[in-house]
Amino acid sequence: MCLFVAVSESGEIAGTIACHVVHPEGGHLRGMAVLPSWQGSGIAEKLLNSAESELRAEGCSRISLDTTEPLVPAIRFYQKHGYRNSGKVTYFCGMRRLEFVKTMTG
Question: Quick one: 2-103 is in which CATH superfamily?
Fold first, then answer.
C-alpha cells in the first residue's frame, strides 16, 4: 500500500489517497479524502495523479475504486478524470458501494 498525503505550508494535512496493486495489471485506490476547506483547490487532482502515476509505474493498466451513492461530488470528480461505473455493486455496512474503473493509456 502506498499512501500520499497533501500537507499545507502550515503543516495541515489537506488530503490523502492510498493505492495498491491488486493483481499484475490492476491497481486499486482507497481513502481519497480532502478537507472541505481545501476542496476546489486542485489538491484532489494532484493526489489522484500521484496515485495513478505510482500504479502506472508498477505496471497497472487498469485502476479501480469504490465509492457510495451519497458521495455525488466524488462520483463527478472521478468521472471527470476518466473513471466509469463498472456496474459492480457490493455492500458495506448495508450501504451500496459502486465500483468505478479507469483504463490507463501510455
Answer: Gcn5-related N-acetyltransferase (GNAT) (3.40.630.30)
Burial class (CB in 10 A: 0-12, 13-18, 19+), 83: buried
Q: Name residues of the chain where pLDDT drops below 50.
A: none
Interatomic CA distance for residues 9 and 103, integer angstroms: 34
SS3 assignment, position 78: helix
Interatomic CA distance for residues 70 and 15, integer angstroms = 20
**Which run of H or of E encompasses 48?**
helix 43-57
What is the 8-class DSSP label of residue 11?
S
Q: In the structure grid, which three cell numbers stand for residue 43, read together?
A: 489538491
Q: Which of 28, 25, 85, 80 is nearest to 52 (CA)?
A: 28
